[in-house]
């Protein structure tokens, strides 16, 4: 069911001609309740808002099926919001003269690792932090033994083997392509430069200066007692993720209360030793190729109607997260959900920062139909969506499956002769075919975003 309640604009910051309204706790609670109890898009959600007047936490639902309520101190996996911590570390090390943004990452890796180069250009720390390194989203030798804990068995040795054999398809710094591998490598290199492990680096460089005592990779027993249970898109409990090698891309757990401390520092409400580093992260940005979207150091930057929002999101097998702030209006938002569902919490975060940005409608229902199984062989193949990123369509019996780097197989169910959908995630695929019924391309829709891919030549 579509969320029915619009946020009422009540509290202004500054004068009326130059203000950004913030909704009331009651209206936010109503949105969260609708999302959990009406739309069934989460089990528990915690939201934090901060402005120059106050910091607030609004929650709804349960941290686990047994009914333990979500609070501002509930621990969530934050997924790729971890990347913001990695970028703060980079900026801080630059401020202290320990590294330079222009340093080649190879400078901080073991000598046996042969980092790919192209046209004499080396991959720099800045390239990694802005997703412009030319490295793919995930390495091609990423092959999880456990789809429910996909990063657990990916080793540093495997990463080094991939890097040493990879050929860049474009120059470093030339084009944006979001890369978990790239930021994971960045954190690995920074930890090596500091002579420690990534978690220790996060604690000493970010958590300790900001007073974030509940942000960790390995939780204490007391933190585990406050940890939310993750849920998949069917609202079934699922396992936590272990991310040893690419930890800098998504391994952290945190609480809404802790993340409000980070936002307070980011917005300048709290004076911290990281002020200069944080300011440097948003000073410049690079294009992403999408309209009104750029990439700063770590932060995504969206600009609509002149309003600039810096943000990042994240997801693991059982969690979704969002962190964002508007520096002009002095507002920050964090939103955590303990279910990895189609709606997530991105729309909620953007809406709370800018009421003109709508809340997501409930996902469209898809219904499976019977089709001629002889059609399926014409769809099997590899489809390239952008350089370095492909999806593979396979057939097992009378079922199609899709596989992309870094994610488990998803079964595809027909809702038409050429239209298919996944049940676990918000994913639909339409095959474009020739006169013989063989697919020569696909249109893929994931989480509301469309991409077109062409079929690679059959081997």
Helix/strand order, N-terminal first: HEEEHHHHHHEHHEEEEEEHEEEEEEEE
What average pLDDT do the residues reach?
90
Structural class of the helix and strand makeup? alpha+beta
The low-pLDDT segments are 1-19
Radius of gyration: 22 Å
- Strand tally, please? 18
Biggest sheet character:
8 strands, antiparallel
Helix run count: 10
In what range is the share of β-strand residues? 15-25%
Task: Give the N-to-C terminal Cα separation.
Answer: 45 Å
Give a summary of the structure in a few sentences.
With 459 residues, this protein is α+β, with helices and mostly antiparallel strands. 22% of the residues lie in helices and 22% in strands.
Please explain how this structure is put together.
- The protein is an alpha+beta fold.
- The chain has helices spanning 25-38, 82-95, 125-129, 156-165, 180-194, 198-210, 221-224, 256-266, 275-281, 346-353; strands at 44-50, 55-61, 76-77, 253-254, 286-287, 293-295, 300-304, 307-315, 320-326, 331-337, 381-386, 389-396, 399-403, 410-414, 419-421, 427-433, 439-446, 449-455.
- The strands form 3 sheets. The protein has an 8-stranded antiparallel β-sheet, sandwiched between helices. An 8-stranded antiparallel barrel has the order 11-12-13-14-15-16-17-18. A two-stranded antiparallel sheet has the order 3-4.
- A hairpin with a 6-residue loop joins strand 13 and strand 14.
- Helix 2 (82-95) crosses helix 9.
- The N and C termini lie far apart (45 Å).
- Mean pLDDT is 90; it is low at 1-19.
Labels describing this entry:
8-stranded antiparallel β-sheet, 22% strand, 459 residues, disordered N terminus, alpha+beta, 22% helix, globular, 8-stranded antiparallel β-barrel
